[in-house]
Design goal:
single chain, 656 residues, alpha/beta, ABC transporter transmembrane region fold, 6-stranded mixed β-sheet
Amino acid sequence: MARLRARAGKHAATVKTRADGRVAPGPPTTPKADARSDGRRVTPFLFRFSEGHRRWFVLTLLMLTFEAVASVFKAYPIGYLVDYLRGNRPDLWFPWIDSPKFATTALLTSAIIVLAAVDSLGDSLAEIFLARGGRRLGYSVRVTVYAHLQHLSLAFHNRRRTGDMLRRVTSDVEQVEQFIVKSLSDIAGSLLVLIGTLAFLLWHSWEVAVLAACMVPVLSLVSHYFSQRITATARRQRAREGELASAAQELLTSIPVVQTFGQSRYEQERFEEHSYKAMAAALDSVGLEAGFSWVFGVLEAVSISAVVWLGMWLVGRDALSVGTMVFFILLIQNMFKPTRKIIKQWTIIGKVRASVERIAEVLARVPSVSDSPEAKEAPSFRGELEFRHVSFAYRLDPEDTAREPPNGPSRGLVLDDVSFRACPGEIVALVGPSGAGKSTIAQLIPRLYDPDAGEVCIDGSDIRSFTLDSLRRQVSLVLQDTILFQETVARNIGYGRAGATRDEIAAAAVRANADEFIDKMPDRYDTELGERATNLSGGERQRIAIARALVRDAPILVLDEPTTGLDAESSHLVLQGLHELMKGRTTIIISHDLHLIQKADRILVIRQGRIEQTGRHAELLREGGLYASLHARRFGEPGGGAEVVAFGPGRRKGAR
């Protein structure tokens, strides 16, 4: 398993770094490769991920060769027996039997049994070897896609539906894996049998071989005709299934809203519509498969009839014996059996091609934020944070730009020449109306995005000069929408830093005011949280997030609306935890709640992507302007009626 993980990690890391610091995928999955036809994409895709597992596929090919040879010669004893009974073949020897007739019959029937056993053994061993190789290949593809998704930009993820991405990681990879495990042996074995049959016919009777070979281009044309249509319907079916999964995922995560607003009927109708589209696409595929099978059956009957007529003509000219003619007819039937297998699997090939296309589309994506070739490990930060003339606009990834309609919405600057500096340990609050660019500033600090112009610096160095991992290890975030995992409380807190001990986790929970409710849980720190931690209140979830940030012990802290939606008591407890968290750390607070930010060392007032005012709470109120306006709107009059919230452990105090 360790070697398997190492190979999968090698696939996940097999990317080239370009001069501009972006990561370019390897040749099989570049955008240029993406433009190639589907038929030429599957083979290099499978070859790329078969690295380290190819011995299983070589062994499979060897076993399928034995199976093909046995399958071709399996009918020979029957043809010999027919000619022998007509007196056209000599006796054969078999031990312990004196009668020539019985000895010949015993040898021929024994040959039938041996050839069938070799045929079956080769097929069984091929399935075993393919299962080992195919499952390992599927593992490599799955973990590579998962790793690549983690490095893609937020712009990519924000434009993709979760259910569709989930199907690409699971269902589409499973489709490829099942094709290798269950279908590849049928296709490869059938091709070997087909080639062996034509070679054997050519050796014995070129006339019959030519007749059989004439059917190959006809079958190829018919196969190509149906293949194009089956692939198109399979692609449409996978897309519809992705939409269905997304609709189901969205519904199941929004049950409280659906039930509260009484929209169950609407959601049911919407789900039925997606389900109907998926069903219709599947039925289209079934109809094409049935038509393909019918045409193939007719061609098989025509071919056998033609061989019968040709065989009778050759028997009449003494160019062929009756037994050989029977043998040839059986060979033609056996030739069509593997061909029928290929035709049956051809529909699966269409689906696999559609799945490979969807997987390759993800792997062909170039992460918009990545390590530059000169990136180095970040030293321990002191916490000096500086924005130098930063401008930024949310833009589409290059792969999505071509799909955007020409008259699509324009994307102006979200930040326009923003400059400020936060000293080590300083608390800086960002205030402004919704859409002013506050959260964008927070996302630029850990390089979730890169600015279009200007620099974001820590301790005087551009953060793009550091590796992403070493940078993000020294930045903590506490967000409005707290994300907790379906794990134990201890693992959720310890998620902040790999290797955190139980004592460190418990100490962080105490400082975050989370130990009180954790101690009341059935298994305390070993209590499993539900999906999205729905068994906790909003304040409890937020305090676990604060404990997680405390365990991380990063010198730079970003708080994005940490108290929004909390009641007074929960907000008070969260604020006490935040006070502990902010001690000695450079802190960026983003909030509409003026109670939270008025004790900051400095307040930056932002409007339309520009810093409009800078100062402390009292200074900005005296100055007037946007901050005073926001304060008056919140409390009814500037500077009056506000409840001052201290970041210390004491109780809140009302203003005089």
